[in-house]
From TrEMBL:
Belongs to the glycosyl hydrolase 3 family. Keywords: Hydrolase, Signal. Gene3D superfamilies: Glycoside hydrolase family 3 C-terminal domain, Glycoside hydrolase, family 3, N-terminal domain, Immunoglobulins. One of its GO terms (molecular function) is hydrolase activity. It comes from the Bacteria. This is Glycoside hydrolase family 3. InterPro entries: Cellulose_deg_GH3, Fn3-like, GH, Glyco_hydro_3_C, Glyco_hydro_3_C_sf, Glyco_hydro_3_N_sf, Ig-like_fold. It comes from Komagataeibacter nataicola. Residues 49-68 are annotated as: Disordered.
Length: 682
């Protein structure tokens, strides 16, 4: 019997199995209409015009006095109707149009929703803001060319690439070009200071199943865009990148580099400054760089040095034309050349965007319930008042949250503990009489205070308000409830109050491993796959998240092969009394007798499930995720053997398993652009 699913149904997985991108943003192979149009236009450009469009240079100020800080302009070719396009410099973390000191998106909170529709909506909102500011290009972080530890998009390449790709799809729908790549300050630094090695050159083939998997996923899911080389480290550290992107992936768009000092070879030599060296330009072209962002504080590479190399015959005109073709293909994917944003808004002042509940919705779906002993959450008004305890820095956030809780019918009082409070007798007197206390905590400096509060004997719920995968929780066994609410924004207050009061259920799942600051000896990466290799269970695993309303059950997992994909079907049921948003996760594991990667996320669903109505779900999985990169063939090689798919609600809470024998296979690496399979519930 078929049942309708309650709410929205969505799934994310690698290899182009995700819909929702506009037709004009299609990724296609080299013979696509987009590539053909780009090649035809590139051939029409004169040599000087071709070389000029390889750079985005500082944009002149609207009053004609100097340049606009942080804003660059791609020159276009007015003779051929190619407009000037503005973009921010990518040498620094992404900032919103109002230049407020915070990231453009609450990355980890958004990733914790595991909700592709919400990610696309975030991209649409960001495109609207960029359009109002006259900008046509935006960098989307969360993935990077080089291994980068734990990025703001989460620690798993498939999750981060898919969610980033959906943001990109939203940007493309507004004719804003997404450029996928991160910069150093967007990385989550480990508590012990360890970081991946990035000084030695590495082959793109060695990154195909790691960092480049996230980039490929983002480009494929978005159905268009461009990629950034030079975010975490110079482009020159990845050899064979251009061949991977253009020949194996068949991606027609561009590779873009941040300002000159981060191009291949690092800093530009003094000889180049005096017009005697073209090596940086030769290196950039060899590494696949198509466009360079120019900084007024650094010498550029694809300007005079490239022109000299062309004159000397070291770089062929056909190479320059191919670079231009890649650039134009990316802009045509976005529709930026046909629908450029007007500069009028940038000159006359920008009207504020319409009021949007996006940030609140991100918190509502992304807040993760980590622990809920004695079912303290949600707070029941019938059980008496709730005391909210904070340090002075969080007082405004506490007042906003308390107002929301009061509107839900709770009796709430906010008290402020002095900085350094924690020892017996230093907490506000009200804490000793409180039966239920809610603590808003932003750092480890609160740990002593939380421990002392728990020793008083009342029920304690802790809300973590920072993006810290290594947050220590020495008080975990002494408190009742813990919520990971991510880096605080005032827009979170209403959504969080709805979760704490029971008006809405918790449904977020961790996009990162919460380590508690503890790692097995010698561990460099602190992600779930590293913990699995070390046979250590972390404090809270990747993918983990509880519901306050009930539990879900998974059963009847079956897996069959369909060409270059596996199709996994299973039953999801809700034995409780209230609807619950479920995020069932599929992980694939290679045969134990084969060298390779440990278990990894392969696919998931995000679905509301009504009580009493089991649903049968079907999820396709790309066999690329079961294979190893075959550099000689430019494809994915799947060895013959028994492969296991495991189903559960986190990377370690896997309750159903299915094994399938596969013959030796070769799976194409071409980025696909096809509609998602029809989602059905039987």
């Amino acid at each position: 019997m078929k049942h309708a699913l309650t709410g929205s149904v969505a799934f994310l997985l690698m290899a182009g199995l995700l819909a929702a991108a506009p037709a004009h943003a299609a990724v296609a192979a080299a013979a696509s209409p987009t590539s053909t149009r780009a090649a035809d236009m590139a051939a029409r450009l004169q040599p000087a015009e071709q070389q000029a469009v390889l750079q985005a240079r500082p944009a002149p100020a609207t009053d004609g006095d100097g340049n606009t800080p942080g804003l660059l302009a791609w020159p276009g070719v007015p003779r051929l109707g190619l407009p000037v396009l503005r973009m921010p410099t990518f040498a620094t973390p992404v900032q919103p149009g109002d230049a407020a000191a915070r990231p453009m998106l609450p990355w980890l909170a958004l990733a914790a929703t595991w909700d592709p529709d919400l990610a696309r909506r975030a991209g649409v909102a960001r495109a609207r803001a960029e359009w109002l500011h006259g900008r046509a290009v935006l960098r989307v972080g969360g993935v990077d060319t080089l291994p980068s530890g734990r990025l703001q998009g989460g620690e798993d390449q498939v999750l981060a690439g898919s969610m980033g790709g959906m943001i990109g799809a939203g940007l493309l729908s507004g004719h804003v070009l997404p450029v996928f790549g991160s910069v150093a300050r967007e990385e989550q630094v480990r508590a012990d200071g360890a970081a991946p090695e990035r000084t030695a050159p590495v082959k793109a083939a060695d990154l195909a199943a790691h960092s480049l998997l996230g980039v490929a996923t983002a480009l494929e899911v978005a159905h268009g865009g461009a990629m950034l080389c030079g975010g975490m480290a110079p482009c020159g550290e990845v050899t064979g990148l251009a061949a991977m992107v253009h020949e194996a992936w068949h991606f027609p768009g561009m590779i873009l580099a941040v300002p000159g000092g981060d191009l291949p070879g690092g800093g530009v030599p003094d000889s180049a400054l005096h017009g005697t060296d073209t090596a940086p330009a030769l290196n950039a072209v060899a590494m696949g760089v198509d466009m360079e962002q120019v900084s007024p504080a650094r010498p550029d590479v694809l300007g005079e040095m490239l022109r000299r190399a062309v004159r000397d015959g070291d770089i062929k005109p056909a190479q320059v034309q191919a670079m231009v073709t890649h650039i134009l293909a990316s802009f045509y994917m976005a529709g930026s050349l046909d629908h450029p944003p007007p500069f009028a808004a940038a000159r006359t002042g920008v009207q504020p965007p319409p009021v949007d509940t996006l940030m609140g919705d991100v918190e509502a779906e992304g807040a993760v319930l980590l622990q809920n002993e004695n079912r303290v959450l949600p707070f029941d008004p019938a059980l008496g008042p709730v005391l909210v305890l904070v340090h002075p820095a969080m007082r405004q956030a506490a007042d906003l949250l308390a107002d929301g809780l009061r509107h839900a019918g709770l009796n709430v009082t906010v008290v402020t503990a002095p900085d350094g409070a924690g020892a017996t007798g230093t907490l506000p007197p009200a804490c000793a009489q409180a039966a239920r206390t809610l603590v808003l905590s932003a750092s480890n400096e609160d740990n002593r205070m939380i421990t002392t509060l728990a020793e008083l004997g009342g029920h304690v719920a802790v809300v973590l308000t920072a993006d810290d995968p290594d947050r220590q929780m020495p008080w975990l066994d002494a408190v009742d409830s813990v919520v990971q609410a991510w880096a605080w924004r005032d827009e979170y207050a209403q959504a969080l109050s709805a979760l704490l009061s029971g008006q809405q259920d918790f449904s977020g799942h961790l996009p990162v491993t919460l380590t508690g600051g503890l790692y097995p000896p010698g561990m460099v990466d602190a992600n779930y796959r590293a913990f699995e290799r070390a046979h250590v269970v972390p404090l809270f695993p990747f993918g983990y998240g509880l519901s306050a309303r009930g539990r879900l059950a998974l059963s009847e997992l079956h897996v069959v092969r369909e060409g270059n994909r596996l199709n996994a079907s299973f039953t999801l049921s809700n034995p409780g009394t209230a609807a619950v948003r479920a995020v069932p996760q599929l992980y694939v594991e290679t045969p134990p007798d084969l060298p390779g990667n440990p278990r990894r996320l392969a696919a998931w669903r995000s679905v509301m499930v009504s009580p009493g109505h089991p649903v049968r779900l079907s999820v396709p999985v790309s066999l690329r995720l079961a294979g190893q990169w075959n550099n000689a063939g430019g494809n994915w090689s799947v060895a013959a053997g028994d492969y296991t798919l495991s189903l559960g609600f986190s990377s370690v809470m896997l309750v159903r398993h299915a094994t399938l024998h596969l013959p030796a296979l070769h799976v194409p690496a071409t980025l696909e652009n096809q509609p998602a399979p029809v989602v059905t519930a039987e």
